[in-house]
Amino acid sequence: MKHSLLTACLFAGLLTPALASANPEPTAYDTKSVGMALTGTSYLERPAALALNPANMEGIKKLGFTFNLTNLLVNQTAPVEGPGTSVSSGLGYGPLASGFIGGRIAPRVVLVGGLYIETGYGSSFSGVTCLDGDPVAPDGGNTLPDGTPSTPTTTPPCSNLQPQDLNVTFFVGEFALGTSFKIHEKFWLGVALRLPFSKQVADLWQNVGAALGFFRYARVKNDLGGVGTPSLRFGVTIKPHKKVNIGIMYRMASKIKMTGTTETSLLVDQETGGPLTLDSQADWNIPHALAFGVSSQVTSKALIAFEARLQFHGAPRSGNGNQTVTATDPNGNLDPFTIVVPFGWKNVWSAKAAFEYRFNEVFALRGGANIAESATTQAWAQYFTPPPGLSGNVTAGFGFYWKDRNNPAIKDKYILDLAGAFAFTTGELDNRYEGESLFIPGTDPNDPENLPVGICSRDQIVRTGCPGKYNVLTYWASVSFTLQY
Considering the domain boundaries, does residue 485 fall inside one? Predict the structure, then answer.
């Protein structure tokens, strides 16, 4: 029983925060890119090109520096109180910061280093008194193994009980060092070495008793982080005409091994008398990604750009079908054990279109829109997951340019960029999977020890696939400063 409860607590603590970034990554590395619908693969010839298309770093003349801060406010709605319900999380704040610096080290070679956030997220559901359609009772809403309820489990309207908060913070970042090579005036190449890292923190109230076949909620906290395996990003820029650029980026997959602790109020540490804390380890896959962009400097003032991106979350080995988790009891009372957390993500795409109009040497106006597919599938959607289906993003921005007063020949030495955006993913899940039993994606259904999971049922520690309204509204505010000459 203790082994199963430990497994349940670890499972509950890891599933929700890991799912926080199911949609395509925001790629919020540069405010000009944000204002132009997150494009830039073909035209952004700044230090931030390190993260979008390292070949474009060749556009740096001598030296370049960019600092960017993108602020996200996220509001989610999901059927937290049970199938068919609709609960709003309220606004959660997530900052995405990045910094890049580089310069020319040879007539045809540029070197750039950078630190940036690939994906960031933070949200919560506060004061929940009815979770999954069951009251949040002071003793955890316990139902005994023989099925006898020790507290009411269906008493509407789930009030006058003990409210609980669900809080999640998650981000993936990278440090990268890259170089570009001008093979020809019309053909540039670039490569970057990436070192990914991540952090996830969760404080949740979950049905950890489901691992033993009965209904019991408890407080679960986890704090994990780690550094992944180095990986590469490749870029190609082709300039077939003086007014046309073509950019291609390919990012290799990498895996982050996260370590930390998981703590539960359900079990007591016999040595300290407090909640039992497990030493935990989990992996996080950053999938292969491919981007293709075309831009045209239609006139000396007008730029248009089109871009498409693919992310292979559904790849068998490097995607996010599931997550392997291991745990160790630091007191030595249990042997280390492994569990598999379901994701069920699929490959996703996004398409983008943007423009910039530079009125004069000082001011530019930007805008754009994109559409993307969520990686989430219906059967495995849950509270902190963007809903399955399509999402949209509308952006606008401004650019301000200044010359070097001491050397007027150096134009656009100082650049201040401002941008805002609104993104939405909305949908309503039907009950097609409710009550159905499915195997965890990426596992072997022929393994006799691998049992199917009942979707949207009390058999799940974190319920997935429950019918109801799911949507995510995200408000962006981005600013960056660039120095280049």
Answer: no
pLDDT per residue as tens digits for the range 377-388: 889 888 877 788
Q: How far apart are CA 421 and CA 32, in angstroms?
A: 12
**pLDDT tens digits for range 429-458:** 888 887 789 888 888 888 887 888 888 887
pLDDT of residue 150: 41
Strand locations in 129-243, DSSP E?
A: 130-131, 134-135, 164-184, 187-206, 218-227, 231-241
Quote the Cα angle for 238-243-192, to 5°: 30
Report which DSSP code applies to 228. Answer: B
Contact 23, 410 (CB under 8 A): no
Asked if residue 331 is part of any domain, the answer here is yes
Helix (H) or strand (E) holding 453: strand 453-454
Helix (H, G, I), strand (E, B) or coil at 162: coil
Instruction: Report the alpha-carbon angle 124-126-474, nearest 5.
Output: 35
For residue 150, count other CB atoms closer than 10 A to its CB.
15
Which residue(s) pair with 130 in the sheet? 135
State the number of CA atoms in the 13 A half-sphere of 299 facing the CB.
Answer: 7
Full residue range of the structural domain in which residue 429 is found: 2-479
Which tokens sit at 82?
């049970």
> What tens digit of pLDDT does each residue of 294-334 get?
999 999 999 999 999 999 999 988 888 887 778 787 777 76
* 3-state DSSP assignment of residue 273: coil
C-alpha to C-alpha distance for 460 and 473, rounded to whole angstroms? 27
Between the alpha carbon of residue 389 and those of residues 25, 82, 86, 289, 381, the distances in Å are 16, 21, 18, 20, 11
In a domain, 484, yes or no: no
Domain membership of residue 235 (yes or no) is yes
d(CA 482, CA 99): 10
Q: Which residues 6+ apart lie within 8 Å of 73 measured at CB?
A: 91, 92, 93, 94, 474, 475, 477
The tokens of 144 are what?
Answer: 């005994």
> Do residues 51 and 28 make contact, with C-beta atoms less than 8 angstroms apart?
no
Tens digits of residue pLDDT in 190-227: 999 999 999 988 888 877 766 666 677 778 888 999 99
Q: Is the pLDDT of residue 165 over 70?
A: yes
Q: How far apart are CA 61 and CA 52, in angstroms?
A: 18
Residue among 101, 98, 286, 288 at smallest CA distance from 178: 101
Dist CA 330 CA 327 (whole Å): 9
Number of structural domains the chain divides into:
1
Within 8 A by CB and 6+ apart from 446, the residues are none
Residue (of 417, 415, 464) closest to 437 by Cα position: 464
Element housing 297 (H / E): strand 289-297
Strand partners, 219: 205
pLDDT category of residue 169 using cuts at 50, 70 and 90: confident
CATH, residue 310: 2.40.160.60
CA distances from 263 to 37, 134, 332, 336, 341 (A): 41, 23, 16, 16, 18
